[in-house]
Amino acid sequence: MTMVAAEGGPATGPTVLRMLLGAQLRRLREASGVTREGAGWEIRSSESKISRMELGRVGFKERDVSDLLTLYGVTAAEERDALLKLARDANSPGWWHRYGDVLPGWFQSYLGLEAAAALIRSYEVQFVPGLLQTPEYARAVVLLGHRGAAVEEVDRRVELRMQRQQLLHRADPPQLWAVIDEAALRRPIGGRQVMRGQLSALIEATRSPHVRLQVIPFDAGGHAAAGGAFTILRFGDDDLPDIVYIEQLTSALYLDKREDLDYYAAAMERLCVEATPPERTPEVLTRLRDELYPE
């Protein structure tokens, strides 16, 4: 069995640690021939609780993990200690915990997954991707949804978005591959000056070796993802499945079933074919900037 260290560096947050621990507990349970129902009985709980634990969707009580390891026949002190440490670390709050006053719970889960992803592929229709927004553009977007908010609250929401972007500047950044509908670039969020600055920032982002941008032009007509924006997250550990994230107004969907993943992966591939090739993106962005938002 491959052990996963809890101290995985800046990319490892509590969300992905729960997923990794859950995957290891599932393998141990299956190898020992114990059913989910039997495991649930052992920790005075239910089959559904074991299922949620194995998917990494709930926190872990150290006592429960210890009891399950005993049930699964894990007696080696080193292996038990490593998994129990993983359980403790998985319950630690992420950096975004301090923004809990302006951060809905359903989005906290996404931030944990985003921070742990090795590849982030997104399609955006309405806005520039959050990881590439300038502070001025981000403020304009925040104000669209929180017009009556106090200045301090707006500042914290913008600060949170800027903090998210730090993952692109760490030593081991994820690969970001974003496809943006031309409509998002033509929509003057925040006014012409803000949009000119935002397009200039996108042009600069194309120079980064771990960022790939493409634009779906209007003349592409209808396309594969007409249903709306989505993000596909891929992780560096083979034990973790890809996850499709679809944000709604007051909640989000997290899809990890194989048929859903295949559908969205195929849609993303078609989008990338229909979009302008990445090497032409700086040219496309420069033309749109200078035509729509001249100095």
Structure characterization notes:
With 295 residues, the protein is of the alpha/beta class. 48% of the residues lie in helices and 12% in strands. It has a 6-stranded mixed β-sheet with strand order 3-2-1-4-5-6, sandwiched between helices. α1 packs antiparallel against α5 (77-90) and α4 runs antiparallel to α5.
Present the secondary structure layout:
Layout: H1 14-32, H2 36-42, H3 47-54, H4 62-71, H5 77-90, H6 105-116, E1 117-124, H7 135-145, H8 151-164, E2 175-181, H9 182-186, H10 192-205, E3 211-216, E4 230-235, E5 243-247, E6 252-255, H11 258-274, H12 281-292
Parallel strand pairs: 1-2, 2-3
Antiparallel strand pairs: 1-4, 4-5, 5-6
Q: Structural class, from helix and strand content?
A: alpha/beta
Helix content: 40-55%
SSE order, one letter for each helix or strand = HHHHHHEHHEHHEEEEHH
Q: Could you state the oligomeric state of the chains shown?
A: single chain
Shape descriptor: elongated
Unreliable runs: 1-11
What average pLDDT do the residues reach? Answer: 89
Tally of strands: 6
Task: Please describe the structure with a list of short key phrases separated by commas or semicolons.
295 residues, alpha/beta, 6-stranded mixed beta sheet, 6 strands, 12% strand, disordered N terminus
Short structural description:
With 295 residues, the chain is an alpha/beta fold. It has helices spanning 14-32, 36-42, 47-54, 62-71, 77-90, 105-116, 135-145, 151-164, 182-186, 192-205, 258-274, 281-292, and strands spanning 117-124, 175-181, 211-216, 230-235, 243-247, 252-255.
